[in-house]
Amino acid sequence: MEKVGFEETRGALPPPPPPLPPHGRPERLTEPSKCVAMSRTGTGRSGRRINLVANHFKVSVNVPDAVFFQYSVLIKSEDNRKIEGKGIGGKVMDKLSQTYSSELAGKNFAYDGEKALYTVGSLPQTKFEFTVVLEEAAVKRSGSPDPKRTKSSIQSKTYNVEISFSARIPLKPIALALKGLKADNTGDALRVIDIILRQQAAKRGCLLVRQSFIHDDVRIFISFGGGLTACHGFDSCFQTTLCGLSPNMDVSSTMILMPGPVLDFLLTNQNLRDPRQIDWGKASKMLKNLRVKARHNNMEFKIIGISEKACNQQYFPLKMRSGDGSTEETVEITVYDYFKNRNIDLANSAYLPCLDVGKLKRPNYLPLELCSLISLQRYTRSSSSMQRASLVERSRQKPQERIRTVIDAVKNYRYDDDSMLKACNISIEKQLTAFEGRVFNAPTLKVGNSEDCVSRSGRLNFNQKRLLSPIQIKRWAIVNFSARCDISYLSQELIRCGRSKGIHIDNPYSLIEEDSQWRRAGPVVRVEKLFEQVKAKLPGPPEFLLCVLPERKNCDIYGPWKKINLHEMGIVTQCLCPTKINDRYLTKVLRKINSKLGEVMNSLVEVKCIPTLPRLKETPSMILGMDVSHGSPGQSDIPSIAAVVGSRSGPLISRYRASVRTQ
Predict the structure, then answer these.
(1) Using one digit for the tens of pLDDT, what is the confidence trace for 524-535?
(2) What pLDDT, on a 0 to 100 scale, did the predictor assign at position 653?
């Protein structure tokens, strides 16, 4: 990104070149050096060849000399207070684009929602000051919420917008990268293109979640209880690959609140049928800051709370004119009577509280049955493990369905019609990137007694096989969280199967059952109480704890149990929920236990030497993997996260050490 001073006031033209020295000789400018990839011995021929497609779409840039100009944006209200909300910022900039199009030379811009906007080419000036007036239809309350009797007025808010030139972002580094030449700072131009995609999705009415675009389409909503709905969308961003620049498009999902009547949402959220059984304390926390639309006047409001009294007992002051209209007096009236006098039917609201959609010092009460939740309101609270698993399960698509969905999305978005992408002459193909792949045979593994273990039909059979490096387990115990399992029989079968695999397991020190009085308590309390039993029955810290859980998937006890054992006490533990105890199941459990106590990822097997990679065995080698993730455009408060993982104890390459850091 090239920084330029503000003294260039007309067109942001580049400065003239410096004069040549008297005895200097001009030199020919050499092209940037070619990017040389790491040399390899060949492309490989082993394996079965197959045709594959990737969710990337090829991009061509036909105007490599185009330049994005970045401008800083500062929005202030009439009282000189900075405006930082993304929603109001977008509305202000949209109004600015419509009102001052001639001052901006008719140029379109991409706004990141916070403090920056981007244009293709420069604006007429390096600094602007605009006054933007946003007008909103409001209701002038004259004692009646009835639309036929309500007087409409226009409320306007004035904002001062300052736009100043900040930097130039050339598109040339991307063009060079597409040709295989060395290029720096491609990330700045890619970030601008991603912002253009986000702005285009916002204009379509999509919910923006980082780089995901969620559509407001009831046909793709999937309800999974608790008043929550899975909503499908797409995750899209531009990336540079060895094949060139391409947008990576994939299917994504997020959880939103079920749109519709507020009363129906509360009943579904608390799994009730009778509105009189609603816990209004929980309801107030759930509804706070949500947006609703009132049925009687078709206006949108933001919920700040729930009234303390029922609708037929909640009074508020109402200004009314006398019969002759000469004087005005204030009377106290209930919310129920107010709407009943206006012939607005409230069949279920008399004994229910009201929604407060006003301000802290000036409440505005609306009956529940007149309000409906607006669509695409994201569920931001922490979801349970069951809800997350349900979201993943119901969002899964078959390959052909996923391919068809992604291709249709690229065609429907019509990226080529975007004015800013047109100015750069960026065109996107409508078909997935095709390439050739190879399927390798499963590696031959070595187990105990120098025996080979070969995969058959995609499965490894460990019957009558011994572990490569078996361990000994002396101090251990079994705990049972009220699961229907005979832990005495489980311990006997585990010891028998372990000895057949080469693991010597002593009898458990204790078999601990959960106290029945804590079965209905929360997961954290259940774990704490059971761990108190472990401390009381064992003379010291055990070497290993086997935990039997009551649920096979997404058990709430799993997280607190792992935390107290691994993080606080440093005790190795293995959780299981057996449905059928046999040698195959116990072998899988023993492999995990042997791996955890032996500090090896896969202590059962050893990968045999691969002829094509002799250096892994002959020379001490380390295999490294690295990745960095960044926040989406416009989210300056999201840190970058870097992770590195490296292999240990070569040539086994089955022990790893990982490290994660935030910026």
Answers:
(1) 999 999 999 999
(2) 62
Distance CA 503, CA 510 (A): 20
Looking at the fold, whether 554 and 582 belong to one and the same domain comes out as: yes
| 449 within domain boundaries | yes
CB 594 within 8 A of CB 572: no
Q: Which of 221, 224, 201 is nearest to 213 (CA)?
A: 201
Shared-domain flag, residues 364 and 503: no
pTM: 0.61
* Dist CA 572 CA 542 (whole Å): 9
Helix axes 280-287, 262-269, angle to 10 degrees: 120
Q: What residues make up the domain containing 502?
A: 445-607
Domain count across the chain: 5
Q: Which pLDDT belongs to residue 142?
A: 39
Tell me the DSSP string of 145-167: --TTTPEEEEEEEEEEEEEEEEE
Q: Would strands 511-513 and 476-480 be described as parallel, antiparallel, or unpaired?
A: parallel
Does 436 reside within a domain? Answer: yes
Q: 487 Cβ partners below 8 Å, 6+ apart?
A: 478, 480, 511, 513, 548
* Cβ atoms within 10 Å, residue 656: 14
Among residues 285, 301, 305, which one has the least CA distance to residue 293? 301
Low-confidence residues in the chain, pLDDT < 50: 1-11, 137-153, 601-609
Indicate whether 330 and 408 sit together in one domain.
Answer: no
In this structure, the answer to whether residues 192 and 210 fall within a common structural domain is yes
Phi/psi at 598 (5° precision)? -90, 0
